[in-house]
Design a protein that fits this description.
With about 260 residues, this protein is α+β, with helices and mostly antiparallel strands. The two termini are about 30 Å apart. The protein has a nine-stranded mixed β-sheet, with helices on both faces. It has a single domain, classed as L-fuculose-1-phosphate Aldolase (3-Layer(aba) Sandwich), CATH 3.40.225. The chain has nine helices and nine strands. α3 packs parallel to α7 (about 185-195). The relative contact order is 0.14.
């Protein structure tokens, strides 16, 4: 299994608390899924059809946040706000294999299609990443309200140039996904495409997805990017109009030489 359940739920409590304290998970915003290594279980509940098939995920087991769960509640009672699901043997449906007996929430995240599409791609590509997290990173959302930054080249240049740690720890940069209706197969496909070459995808005016080997690692990448965005807004509000700030092209190239 990804981790012993006790330490896994401890990590969920910690990261859910970080997201709530950062203001990145208002109300029921934010969700995550973790692909586990587990034995095939016999279905105990009816199956639910999936809109598209995910053949690489056949029989795979996931721990996923429940639809309607609040991160502030997750930080206190992670077992009540998550459930275990298993994908069917053809990758065309899923069923719940375990939920906490005290849980009031009975369905997986409304972003299930996007999570499964990403996991399907990760498995097919042989990636070691088993965790997908979505949250509303305020600072990154703010950047996507600036039309000039709504493209990958400009957005990554800005994020990398604000702080040397950013290119060191997020060397692939971010993928940019133009605004799309959440919870749809369209946004699932676009996000998956971006995460083939990046570990973070930013949704225009909405939030971000990150993939990694643990929830903490997913959070860390977003935290670093958010700090770069904060530095940008602080610098922009403190200098005169048209003043140039941030790492120079030469400095960025030096860092790229170290990273790549």
């Amino acid at each position: 299994m990804y981790k012993e359940q006790k330490s896994l739920f401890s990590e969920i409590k910690a990261v859910a608390g970080y997201l709530w304290e950062r203001g990145w998970s208002e109300r029921n915003a934010g969700n995550f899924s973790i692909r586990l290594v587990a034995e095939v279980s016999k279905p105990t509940e009816k199956s639910h059809p999936l809109e598209i098939a995910f053949p690489a995920l056949a029989n795979q087991v996931f721990l996923i946040s429940a639809k309607g769960s609040f991160m502030r509640h997750m930080a206190k009672h992670p077992k009540r706000n998550t459930l275990f699901i298993q994908i069917g043997k053809q990758g065309t449906d899923y069923h719940v294999i375990h939920r906490n007996k005290h849980a009031m929430l009975t369905e997986p995240s409304s972003e299930l299609a996007t999570h499964l599409a990403i996991h399907n791609m990760l498995v097919e590509s042989g990636s070691k990443n088993r965790v997908v997290m979505h949250t509303h990173v305020t600072e990154l959302i703010a950047l996507t309200h600036l039309p000039e930054l709504c493209n990958e080249q400009s957005l990554n240049h800005l994020l990398w140039s604000m702080h040397p740690e950013t290119i060191m720890f997020v060397p692939k940069g971010v993928g940019f996904v133009p605004f799309e209706q959440p919870g749809t197969t369209a946004i699932a496909e676009r996000t998956t495409q971006k995460l083939q070459n990046h570990d973070v995808a930013v949704w225009e005016k909405h939030g971000a997805f990150s993939v990694d080997t643990s929830l903490e690692a997913c959070f860390d990448a977003l935290d670093i990017l958010a700090k770069s965005a904060r530095i940008y807004f602080m610098a922009k509000s403190s200098v005169e109009k048209n003043t140039t700030f941030g790492l120079t092209g030469e400095q960025l190239n030096e860092l790229k030489g170290i990273v790549f």
